[in-house]
Specification:
The protein has 351 residues and is of the alpha/beta class. It has 3 domains: 97 residues, Elongation Factor Tu (Ef-tu), domain 3; 116 residues, Rossmann fold (3-Layer(aba) Sandwich); 92 residues, Ubiquitin-like (UB roll) (Roll). 20% of the residues lie in helices and 30% in strands. The chain is built from 8 helices and 18 strands. The strands form 4 sheets. A 6-stranded antiparallel beta sheet has the order 4-3-6-1-2-5, with helices on one face. The protein has a 5-stranded parallel beta sheet with strand order 9-8-7-10-11, with helices on both faces. Helix 5 packs across helix 6. The radius of gyration is 21 Å and the shape is globular.
């Protein structure tokens, strides 16, 4: 069961560019703890649209160390149902259903003084700028931001980034890339930007093609996949566009059905009964536990867990990179046991 939704009021709206707005939310004292967040995380919204209740997740562009209230930034998308609804419909004072923050696209706790390289493409800057602000304010680490946009008027947070650059000229380097002037970033362009930063911690968020190019450059530069994080948001399929026939999952054989599995959650190792056909997430919820979850369709990555032992089969894994899967990350909402061998997943593992 996903975390409960709460009604938050819009305290402010900022027109960032011609097609992008930021929405600032006031959080009452009674919900402060529930909405405590780390830079790089996201909020999930439930909104009314043509008789349906649709959900979308948007990254926080605020940082808890620098911004009084949580803020998300939403860019218009051609034929985008909810992104355009946000920009056209919401006003200061309106209230909207919001789920508490989730997400693993956050700074690791054991990086000491390693540098940080941030790749943002278009509106993919939102979690990246959040991480940048936190890192500058709370660490002494060097940072490099490579920010690609279609053209100059599309640069979100340009003035804010310039202010941070002026405050931390010795620690922050910013590279703007404009497709209108130089074309799309090439493999050679990206490799040149990461030269000398090979031991850094890398964060990437942006359009699919941009992220794929950065990932290829990482491979060509022999960057350790364990030092990279990708935030890849794919909107869930709305009920009126869902093809139920495509959702069919092969039936498990009796030899793939363990009686129980173990999961690590909030510092405890818990034994969870398993029943044929259920996902690991469904099993945990049925047993009375509350692992992190949101879309339950494999799109948001909220229910990521590290597979410590055993085998699973995932119906879908859109939110995971190939390198994530190689390292053992699974989506609990899409995973079913694929053997009788002891199975353990860890929700507490650091991504």
């Amino acid at each position: 069961m996903p975390a409960d939704f709460h009604e938050l009021q819009i305290a402010g709206i900022v027109q960032e560019t011609h097609d992008t707005r930021s929405f600032i939310f006031s959080v009452p004292d009674s919900l402060r703890e529930a909405f405590r967040y780390r830079s790089g995380q996201f909020l999930t919204f439930e909104v009314p649209f043509e008789g349906m209740q649709l959900r979308r997740s948007y990254s926080l562009s605020s940082a808890p160390e620098t911004d009084a209230w949580p803020k998300v930034t939403v860019k218009r998308v051609d034929d985008g149902r909810i992104s355009n609804w946000f920009n056209d419909t919401l006003h200061v004072g309106d209230r909207i259903l919001v789920q508490p923050p989730e997400g693993r696209f956050v700074l690791r706790s054991n990086e000491r003084d390693h540098g940080i390289v941030l790749f943002g493409g278009g509106s993919g800057i939102t979690p990246v700028v959040s991480i940048m602000k936190s890192a500058l304010r709370t660490t002494g680490r060097r940072l490099k931001l490579i920010y690609a946009n279609r053209d100059e008027r599309s640069i979100i947070f340009k003035d804010e980034i310039d202010l941070w650059l002026a405050e931390f000229p010795g620690r922050l380097e910013v590279v703007h890339h404009l497709d209108s002037a130089s074309g799309f970033m090439s493999l050679a362009d990206i490799r040149e930007q990461i030269r000398g930063w090979e031991e850094a911690e890398f964060f990437v968020c942006g359009p699919t093609g941009y992220m794929d190019s950065v990932e290829e450059a990482f491979k060509a530069s022999n960057i350790d996949p364990g030092r990279t994080k990708f935030e890849r948001f794919i909107s869930p399929i709305d009920p009126d566009r869902r093809d139920d026939s495509a959702q069919a999952v092969p039936e498990q054989s009796d030899g793939e059905i363990p009686a129980t599995f173990n999961m690590v959650l909030e510092g405890q190792t818990l034994e969870v009964p398993y029943k044929k056909g259920l996902t690991l997430l469904e099993s945990a919820i049925k047993a009375g536990h509350k692992p992190p979850s949101s879309c339950e369709d494999g799109y948001c990555g909220c229910c990521m867990a590290l597979l410590k032992s055993g085998k699973v089969a995932m119906a879908a894994h859109d939110a995971l990179e190939p390198s994530d899967i190689e390292q053992g990350w699974v989506l609990a909402c899409q995973s079913r046991p694929a053997s009788r061998e002891p199975l353990e997943i860890d929700f507490d593992a650091e991504y």
